[in-house]
Design a protein that fits this description.
4-stranded antiparallel beta sheet, alpha+beta, 3 helices, 209 residues, Jelly Rolls, 30% strand
Length: 209
Amino acid sequence: MCGPPYLLLPPLVLLLAHLVSALHFHLPVNSVKCLKEEVDRDVLVTGEYELSEEPRTTTNLKITDSDGYVLYSRKNATRGKFSFTTENAVMFDVCFLSRSPMGSGKVPDQLVNLIVKHGVEAKNDKELETLEKLNPLEAKMRKLELMAQSIADRMLYFKKREKEMRQTNASTNNRVLLLSVTSVVCLSALAMWQVSYLRRFFKRRKLIE
């Protein structure tokens, strides 16, 4: 017999911990710090950032994917939100670039608060409004359904990546084996040629019969 719905929530929350990245870090002046994250295709990614005030420092925010395409850019970033939907499975970088004419050591570090969400946690306002129209039990069940679907999609993505990595590993092993066999054959042929050449040379010099 299945337990009540709320008993399913803790393990789902643990499994979905990777869907939210909350970071707090110090950004030294005249430096760059980046967050890398990998997501599947057709995934909504949202984020919110806030930097401590420092009038002598200019900090730019740029988000790019693994192909170099700029997903979001903000000059003199202080606080704000961003969102985008991935077209393909990508690795994206969230980079903060700090610049100040004062130089290092004269300007204090900035405190950066960054929250990045994707998948279920990044559902848009329309989905949230739909949930608000349901009664509490229906809303909770809908959230559990969305979480389960997100976990299933993520597991399929990891399974696909594992298969691709196995194929790449097998292909690499085959190429290394082919290279090793070719190297042995070439070295053996070279050694036999050298022995034959030396035998002919010594015979011409009448050093051997």
